[in-house]
Amino acid sequence: MTEPEERAGSTSSFEEEAVPHLDTVYRFALRLSGAPDQAEDLVQETFLRAYKSWGQYTRGTAAKSWLFTICRNEFLRGRERSQRHDEIVTENVGREGPGTNPVNPVWVSVLGVDPEGDFFESIVDERIMGAIDGFPEEYRTAVVLSDLEGLPYADIAELMEVPVGTVKSRLFRGRRQLQKILYDYAVEMGYIAACSGTDE
Amino acid sequence: MSFFNRLRSLFGDAPKDDAGSPAPMIDCEEALSVVHDFLDGELEGVPHDQVKAHFDACQRCYPHLRLEEQYRQAMRCAASEEQAPDGLKVKLMELIAEADA
Description:
By secondary structure, chain A is mostly helical.
């Protein structure tokens, strides 16, 4: 096969396997960067790097996870300025983890006033995404990859280069914190009545 | 569940509740502690059927499962609304063509 033919084949397979994940990678980049223009840049860098490394990719394997990994690495390279902010917010995510209190205190409050959880339908999507955007990167990435993209724990662990137990711990804390934020927002907006003893 | 009842369940003689139906095979604390793993399809060390049986039968725990499901549904709906801008794919293909040049 001539070099131009090889290139054409490579571009074609890249279009077939990688480019269809554009929306998904864009969503992930948007959650990581927090701004549409930065997300676009991040997506372009991600796909360009992926294309240049396309020869190392085994066709038919997990292209989406691979693109997420590249996207996150690209993001981490450029995020030094936000490092301090992340460290501060980390303190607010809490110390609890799996095995601490299996009863979610937020749900205890919700069950008293909205047992079906209808308040979730009133919360606008932007508020949900805004709440996620406020998280430190390690929690944000875990929650986005699991709750939004449905990746298995093992894939998230590999992508984030941490043990599965750490992923579970971050998911536990991140979800509880997010649920508390959304509940507080719903109370503030009057979507749900306040329940006494809500604060953890 | 007591040790005795667990033993009985192993031999197919599951304890019955007042209504005569099989009692949940794990307790509330255990069920709630694995609710995320259960919904994520990542259970380890406890059979899916046992966890499901508990949530199906337990009036105290089922609402917690339901709220976790509602939370996940809200997350997925919020995410599905976001799509890459129209021109991004075109830009991307241009970059790839440049990389090949």
